[in-house]
Design a protein that fits this description.
By secondary structure, the chain is of the alpha/beta class. 33% of the residues lie in helices and 19% in strands.
Amino acid sequence: MIKGKDLKPHIGIFGRRNNGKSSFINVLTGQDVAIVSEHPGTTTDPVRKSVEIFGIGPVIMVDTAGIDDTGDLGTKRIQKSLQALKTVDCAVLVIAGNRFGSFELQLISEFAKNDVPFIIIHNKADIESLAQTTITDIRKHSDCDVLDFSASTKLGFDAVVESLRKNVPEKTYIFDSLIGDLVEQGDYVLLVTPIDSEAPEGRMILPQQMAIRDILDNKCICITLRETELEHFFKTSGIRPSLVITDSQAFGYVKDIVPDDIPLTGFSIVFSRMKGDFENYIKGTRSINDLRDGDKILILESCTHHISCEDIGRAKIPMWLSKYTGKRLFFTNISGLGDLPENYREYKLVIQCGGCMVTRKQVLNRLKPFTDNEVSITNYGMVIAYLNGIFERVLQPFVKE
């Protein structure tokens, strides 16, 4: 199973066996990250490694099996390599010996299908230089950067780094602010953070940490409290926050305490704007009332975690949805970034988590097969707000006057 657990840019290395993909990674990173062997097929399942590339910064390198692998096991390895495309922000297609044919064209087609920018590296240039005829063949199909490179002599190293710097989408490492367009310098932002059995011992969960940092980066004043202290805060502090962000599970409690004229939303909804398909989430949420007996609902959790009886995706949302609709619904849960069901259209609704542990690219690629097949999508926070009757209210902070 391929799991996205890092917000750094993901760079995938693809190509035929024995073209020097692993050697390329080791030279680029200055480390023996990938196993190098003269025997084709050394790399099996995609291998991920967090590294620092000079001139680019911290990235996740994804080393994949050869696209020309053979046999039943080889076919499975190729499938894993192609699945890795859904998790990468930029790809490197490694060729050697001026071989450019059907295998490379298949990868270029997959890059286009997954909207992944890519460059082509002609490796082993110390043995055979990149030929003009090869460039001409490539230009019939792509105008991407094509660079001569040698893992042995480091020929072309600087040009490769510069090309990657140009092609790695900026949004993968320069994040939009979570709330920067919703507040002004000096504003009070109130975070409501329940502590339940799912809360980690002695620390905040990642969405709360990121929200606190974003508030401070925007030179606002951050106030963090539990939902049980919220009423006391409003009665005694005299502070009127410019924005209240709560854990979605507390919507039912918080909505009756926060005055109607104070903007209110949830962590998951804030993240859905940065990480997800915000407009389609809104549209999909409004389809909840269309659910019927026997409908199947897919719940996507982008990370893996210990499951408890209070688990939001596996226990609470299914229970709340069934109770709200009064329908007999069937739920399927998938954790991490594992394989999706083959028949997308069998689901009436897909519910995606906030996506705090993965990149925007990974979330969008995860949801694309469903939107392409006209399956409604939404996210945890929007569903919970809808079921609590405050859907329009929690969207109000994002409505431009």
